Amino acid sequence: MNQLRPFHLAIPVRNIEESREFYGGLLGFSEGRSSDEWIDWNFYGHQLVTHLNPNLGADGKVANHYNGVDGKGVPVPHFGVVLTLEDWQSLANKVTGKVEFVIEPYTRFKGETGEQSTLFFLDPSGNALEFKAFADLSQLFEK
C-alpha cells in the first residue's frame, strides 16, 4: 500500500503553444493527450496538465508571493519533483542560460540533516517550478 502513486497537477498557462515549446521543447517532457485548451505532460512519471487561462494577471502571468527560506525568496505557490543528484545536475546544466533562475542552483543545509540541492525558475506564464535532489533521500522528511 506504500507504493508511490503518480500525482496529477493542472496549472494555468497564457498560451498553449508557448507551453508546448517550454515543457516539451526546453524541458523535454513527452506530450500526451491535448486539445486547443490543454496539454498532458509526462512530468517524471507524473501527470502535469497545462490549461489555457487567458484571464491571468495584467502581465499574463500567475501572481507569486515570496517567503524567506535559507536566506532566499522562495516563490509561493510552486511545485516540482525530487530527482537523483545526477538528474538534477543534468537538468541544471540543460536550463542554465535558457531560463532566468528565481533561485540559482545551489546546495542548502550542506553537511546537515536534509542536505539538498535545489533550483527554482518560472515558466513563461509565471508558474514557479522547483527541482531538488537530496544527498540522502531517506532524509526527505527529517526535521
From TrEMBL:
In this protein, which residues make up the domain named VOC?
A: 5-134
Q: Which Pfam families match?
A: Glyoxalase
Q: What domain of life is recorded for the organism?
A: Bacteria
Gene3D superfamilies named in the record? 2,3-Dihydroxybiphenyl 1,2-Dioxygenase, domain 1 (3.10.180.10)
| PANTHER family xrefs | PTHR39434, VOC DOMAIN-CONTAINING PROTEIN (PTHR39434:SF1)
| Name the record gives this protein | Glyoxalase
